[in-house]
Design goal:
By secondary structure, the protein is α/β, with parallel strands linked by helices. Helix content is 30%, strand content 29%. The chain has seven helices and nine strands, in the order ααβαβαββαβαββαββ.
């Protein structure tokens, strides 16, 4: 099944399954963005709303986007604030789902499913006000090197999603090409044990 079909299936158990990557990225996003000033946000990969609820408390205008209608349906049940709107969209196509500019564009566990970063960073840069921010939270490429990929169990067996490995330099070079400069890079470890391979990589870029 393709990525969209997989997440539609996964939505039934996404919030209840043990998922260290999901939980640690949520923690990383909150730590990274807690002190960052933004009043408007374009959230790419809202999923079932694990970060949408928190972002809605900080932003006065929030557009939450996801490829999976079933994942997003669960997010809509959790987040009913009037200043939050939801859009189902494929971000590898033109971003016609956004009508305004934002202070922040956030990506949570999305770009591992995208083969080509360049057009994504181009769209993100075009969606930002001058001085705006891009947040990226991803499964660390070091984890991907070991074979770790997004997966879930189904009655038909374990479903392993299509994923692409992007090195740190891939993110940085694609961002710089579109006027986005690195502002922060961090790594997050299971149980905060820095002697093991990090699980989550976060990056913040700023539009010049």
């Amino acid at each position: 099944m393709n990525t969209q079909q997989a997440y539609n299936r996964w939505s039934e158990q996404y919030d209840t399954n043990r998922n260290r990557t999901r939980d640690l990225e949520a923690e990383a996003l909150r730590k990274t963005l807690a002190a960052l000033p933004f009043t408007s946000c374009l959230e790419i990969g809202c999923g079932t709303g694990k970060n949408t609820q928190w972002l809605a408390q900080k932003a006065q205008r929030l557009t939450a986007v996801d490829l999976s209608a079933e994942m997003m349906a669960r997010a809509k049940q959790k987040v009913t604030d009037a200043h939050v709107s939801f859009q189902q969209a494929d971000i590898t196509q033109a971003w016609t789902f956004r009508k305004d500019l934002y202070d922040l564009v956030s990506f949570s566990l999305v770009l591992e499913h995208i083969e080509h970063l360049d057009p994504i960073f181009a769209e993100a840069a075009n969606a930002l006000v001058p001085g705006g921010w891009v947040y990226i939270g991803e499964l660390h490429p070091f984890k991907q090197y070991t074979g770790t990929r997004a997966r879930f169990d189904s009655p038909e067996g374990t479903q392993v999603l299509e994923c692409f490995v992007h090195n740190l330099s891939d993110f940085v070079q694609a961002a710089r090409k579109h006027g986005l400069q690195p502002a922060d890079i961090n790594e997050y470890f299971d149980d905060n044990d820095r002697t093991v391979i990090p699980r989550i990589l976060t990056m913040v870029f700023r539009k010049g």
